[in-house]
Amino acid sequence: MMLSKLFSKISYILLFSCILITFSSPLYAEELVEEHKDEILIISSYNSDAKYTYNNITAFIRVYQEEGGTLPVVVENMNVSGLADAEQWPITVTEIINRHPKVRLLVLLGGEAWYSFLQLKEERYKKIPTLCAMASLYSIEVPPKGTNLKTHDPVSIDILDRMKPFNIQGCYAYEYNLDKNISLIKEFYPNMQHLAFVSDNTYSGLIQHALIKKRMQAFPELQATFIDGRKSTMNMAAKQLKELPANSVLLMGLWRIDAKEMVYVSNSVYAFTNANPSLPMFSLTSSGLGYWAIGGYSPKYEGVALRMGKKAYQVLELNDTNHPELTSLPCEYKFDASKLKEWGFADKELPPNSNVINATLSFFEAYRTEVQSAILIILALLLGLIVALFYYFKTKKLSNYLEESAQQLRADKKKLEESEIELRLAKERAEEASQLKSAFVSNMSHEVRTPLNAIVGFSSLLINSVECDKEQEEYAAIIQANSNLLLQLINDILDISRLESGRLQLTYEWYDVVAHCRKMILLVNQNKCKEIDIQLETPLESYMLYTDPLRLQQIMINLLNNAIKFTPNGGKITLAFKPDEVDQSVKFSITDTGCGIPEENHQLVFERFEKLNEFVQGTGLGLAICKLTIQHMGGNIWLDSSYKTGARFIFSHPISNEKARV
Prior knowledge:
The protein is α/β, with parallel strands linked by helices. Among the domains are: 2-174, 3-Layer(aba) Sandwich (Rossmann fold), CATH 3.40.50; 366-501, no CATH class; 509-661, 2-Layer Sandwich (Heat Shock Protein 90), CATH 3.30.565.10. It is 48% helix and 18% strand. β8, α9 (203-215) and β9 form a beta-alpha-beta unit. α10 packs parallel to α11 (267-275), α17 (420-465) packs antiparallel against α18 (470-501) and α20 (549-565) runs antiparallel to α21 (622-632). The longest helix is centred in the C-terminal third of the chain and has 46 residues, at 420-465. The radius of gyration is 38 Å and the shape is elongated.
């Protein structure tokens, strides 16, 4: 599990790094400016937690577009490391904004980006509609150049007051609550006498250090140790943890960059854990939760991108700039179930509405979706097996009956030769048996299709009209898809039954077959699931043919769908139509660039239930239906053996059908 999480995190970091490199390119930014008149510019501070930043950016873009936003989004990175280059931050932000003169909305992610932008003096920057996120409500003045950062005592800033001259439309800040964290720690460790706080050598770390140092004055009964990343390397910090006195508790702020500006992502957690395994740890910022921390009272980071995306749509598309949204994110109690158990607090009563992670789930809770899917698959297979066995034994019974009749006919051949009357009666019995078979299959298909239509209809109604969750929609969609497949099979069997029993009714009328062909191509294009080019090839703009349009459509749809099955993406299908005055017929051809059909199988494909590829969806009845139907209409169908780059089906239709006219 830990290995899969590590791989997942690495993949997120690599993907987000590629996005930042791409969007940070001045050339790319200039191309976007030339191509689009307006744009949204995101300026991101350096953030080692690439997954969190990437998720916020992609979620913001998705929500903005789902709301109806149309402007393109450009991402630029400040590439902030430690505090040493703090004086360069406003210059970097100025250069980035100047590269994007068509900015309609500016999005600032991270405290360094906030602080740098609020340092700008020119009025044109103050007029840009701006959203701020992913930083603390508390801020400090960056120390001037030459200041000893290790001993610097930062000055607090009212960040909301600093924003007043600017056109800030939305500010979604983190607010840390030391009082509730200390109260929580005392609930777990009433004998706590010493609190150690960890902060790193970053702008956010310095803000947290200043805040906690100030708030600790309200707890004179507690001794405090500040493990400050400005002064300590990771090894030094680990040593400080190891030397903490008894009855100490650690409160984690942030540790990403140490005094030597070495960057750490998660390996700091393991180093700190090994330094003092008996030291309980809580988190002010959620850092360490899921690895080391027992719990903490920290901001709810989820939902920021959703609010930013909706606010961007209101500002840009609805021109609503009169309702700025300046707020701090709510906090919540968060706990790690595995750490609660490890430290002996598995049965402890937690605060109401606590968020507990790493809770142990039962097998069915952990794999609920997989178990339900497996059950559905098994039920579907059982149902399919029952239906298959039913038709197998019915067919076997009919086959045995016909075989017995044939044997009887052979045995009575000599007797039938002596009596023409007896021969005629035997022939009639055989024909009657065949008709009974077709009538039986037809009647059974009708009886099966009636409840199946109800299943298809009500599953469609369930999807389209009943409010249900995503899982129920998935189940209803599975029912509908498989019901449609079974309904298609029943319809094919009905068609074969009608054709065999001679009960197929043809309704002839004069019809423009060129327009008909265009409609067929449009219909197939709407339903196809592959990138295939389907074209009509005919020298005529219109041609009236005396035919049954419905049956002609059935033949074309079967042949076109068959071509789509065996034609890969990027292929081509051509429907051609040409009258043949010499032969007094019109000829239709469907040509594809698929895998083709071996010449020795050209006649076999028109047999019922014959499938050359068992792994392709279908019943093996489509081409048999096409052949029987076109023969009833007075035409014929065949495969062009001279075509070698795919398959070409050709069928003819008589130009003048006197029988149909009568």
